[in-house]
């Protein structure tokens, strides 16, 4: 059991984390203001390491307290959940809140991609990339129920690797934003490729250059 669980976490987390980061950096190229806010927040981190070649990395515990970085990642995962579809099996006859009747053996497909863009759930700006929706008036992270933000599933079926995924996402996101400028290749169409994992069709083509100190 322990072996199978470990393999599941490692294999399931590889492509999903990569997909999530690709969409995150794509969104950052379209929202330079968000990049500026992440950089400003990274400036508040007291513990960082600079490698001999000038690369800056951060302690995961320090990154865990950064509200805006967390909000930006959640907002990206809302718009582009790495696993865009979820299916459920019916075990007993039931009437859903929508009025639809289901019978044992029926399969229910749930689009997490669509749920993250529902105006009734997220408001009129549901299609906008706005990390501030995850931050309360007190400047702290706003509580959002798992049944609303379902990128990691919800309730007792919440992804076991959720916390591990955020550690990885924050570590990579912070290091790349601090050390590099990412620019989408002009003319490259970015659109989702719907499959088990929400990849970018033909990949995300970008130009990368070192960020100057203080930039």
Provide a descriptive summary of the structure in words.
- Its cofactor is heme.
- GO terms for molecular function: heme binding; iron ion binding; monooxygenase activity; oxidoreductase activity, acting on paired donors, with incorporation or reduction of molecular oxygen.
- Pfam families: p450.
- This protein is α+β, with helices and mostly antiparallel strands and 215 residues long.
- The chain has one domain (13-210): Orthogonal Bundle (Cytochrome p450).
- It has 7 helices and 10 strands.
- α1 (2-30) crosses α4 (67-79), α1 runs parallel beside α7 and α2 runs antiparallel to α4.
- The mean pLDDT is 90.
Layout of SSEs?
Layout: H1 2-30, H2 32-42, E1 48-50, E2 56-58, H3 60-63, H4 67-79, E3 85-89, E4 94-95, E5 101-102, E6 107-111, H5 112-115, H6 119-122, H7 162-179, E7 180-184, E8 192-193, E9 199-200, E10 206-210
Antiparallel strand pairs: 1-2, 3-6, 4-5, 7-10, 8-9
Helix pairs in contact: 1-4, 1-7, 2-4
Family: Belongs to the cytochrome P450 family.
Organism: Aegilops tauschii subsp. strangulata
Binding site for heme: 159
List keywords for this structure.
two-stranded antiparallel ribbon, Cytochrome p450, 7 helices, alpha+beta, single chain, 215 residues
